[in-house]
Amino acid sequence: MNKITIIIALLSLINSTLARNMFINNLKDTNIIEQISKETHIEFDPYYKLKKEYIETLKSFNLEYLFNLTSHPNPNVRYYSIFVLTQYFDSIPYLEIAKKHINDTIKLTFKYLDYNMSSPYQTYTNILSEEFIRLIGTSELCTIDLRNIQSFIPYLVRTKNEKGKREIDSLLICSLNNLEQTKQLLTGRVVIPGCYKQVRKKVKKYHDPYALIALSKYKRSSDIHLLLKYLNSFDDVKDKYSFKFLIFIYFQHSRLFKWLNDNMNTYYRNSRYQQAIAQYRSNESLELLKQVIQKARKIEYYHNVRESVIQAMKIYKSNIYNDFLFELLEERNDPFVHFPNELWEVDKERAYRLLIKNLEYKSNCNKDWKPSVTKRIREELTKNAPELLERFEKGINK
After folding, report:
1. pLDDT (tens digit, 9 = 90+) per residue, 33-62?
2. Coil, helix or strand for 46?
3. What angle do CA 15, 20, 23 make, to 5 degrees?
4. How far apart are CA 240 and CA 242, in angstroms?
5. DSSP one-letter string for 144-181
6. 146: which residues sit within 8 A by CB, 6+ positions away?
7. What pLDDT does residue 251 have?
8. pLDDT under 50 in the chain at which residues?
9. Would you tell me how many other CB atoms lie within 10 Å of the CB of residue 9?
10. Which residues face 126 on adjacent strands?
11. Fewest CB within a 10 Å sphere: which of 30, 155, 293, 339?
């Protein structure tokens, strides 16, 4: 047998071996896809990780093959493929994937172990498009709920792609969809540039309440009539008042303040309404907050209204509110040590009396509390009014 014949035989053997290995690998790949397709749910282990066998096999696929799997007929396969792409690849066509699946509303079922619950196995369902966007990422962090149990980092966060986040943000806001991520972007504090026309269209044509909030963030006087006209679009929204008054918190305008003033009798008990007023930090807003308190004194739950008004003035601090804030703090029957440090600068004597009132109240409730409260007051005085420490020590040693 000459050398050429031997070489040909060896090449033939290598090719047949490669072909056999490729066949075995393809068969294994096909089997994994079939296994994933047959699953009734997507399951996490006790560490909130997906099945290692599936992940390791899918990681061995090339990017093009995985990209094609994101369009597989089976939703479980689609989910696993985008999971592996976003978690283990550094350059993927994320925008193309997001555009293609933004309305992929088929539901997935997830199952996981939770030893803190009475029944250790818990399940939840979610539409695939929301899972895709969560894995890709946006500029808004998702709210903490059951849908955040998976152990993952959004692709655009992991790759530190700020431009990509803005692209996904714009895609979500400028297209028609009902994704939770879109609602978060529309209602969050950040204004998404380049989307004003689309946001305004969503308000005028579709009466989208979340788009109404987004429109207020552009702070255009020409939009006031739309903001007021479609306030009733929140009537069918869960926790409608929390969202409704974001419009007034994001945008201060004389016509919007007039609406707050005109509707005081309806909304005075609502904490978001009170915050919307306090945000103006003006003599007019102070008078309206006083009207809220005056109205609330006639009801059984005045205490709750007073505390939420105090909180509103703490959030939106202003020297205009200091005296009124003192008044409300001083009338408490159950005072607390905590109050804004700025009040020390306004009137140290008045702030000092608040602290002493707190000590007396808690000592009367339970004498065992006195040492801890005394220690806390010393800390407050050392920090804010050291000249009053000697007076305090003489007072407690009487």
Report:
1. 999 999 888 887 766 678 888 899 999 999
2. coil
3. 125
4. 6
5. SSGGG-S----HHHHTT-HHHHHHHHHHHHHS----HH
6. 122, 124
7. 96
8. 13-27, 142-149
9. 11
10. 108
11. 30
* All residues at 6 or more sequence positions from 253 whose CB lies less than 8 Å from its CB, including other chains: 219, 221, 224
pLDDT computed for residue 47 by the predictor: 60
112-125 pLDDT tens trace: 776 665 566 788 89
The residue type at 180: E
Q: How far apart are CA 148 and CA 184, in angstroms?
A: 15
Element (H, E) at 122: strand 121-127
CB of 352 closer than 8 Å to CB of 388: yes
The pair of structure tokens assigned to 116 is: 């803190």
Structure tokens at 98: 């997001």
Q: In the prediction, which pLDDT does 20 show?
A: 42
Q: Provide the sign of the torsion angle of the four alpha carbons 122, 126, 128, 129, taken in this order.
A: negative
105, 132 in Cβ contact below 8 A? no
Give the Cα-Cα-Cα angle 167, 131, 148 (nearest 5 degrees): 110
Does residue 260 contact residue 288 with C-beta atoms inside 8 Å?
yes
- The 107-113 sheet, strands edge to edge: 42-43, 107-113, 121-127
Q: What pLDDT, on a 0 to 100 scale, did the predictor assign at position 336?
A: 59
Query: Are 125 and 75 within 8 A, CB to CB?
Result: no
Cα distances (Å, whole numbers) of residue 390 to 30, 92, 306, 357, 378: 81, 67, 33, 17, 10
Kind and range of the H or E run holding 121: strand 121-127
What's the burial of 143, exposed, middle or buried (CB within 10 Å: 0-12/13-18/19+)?
exposed
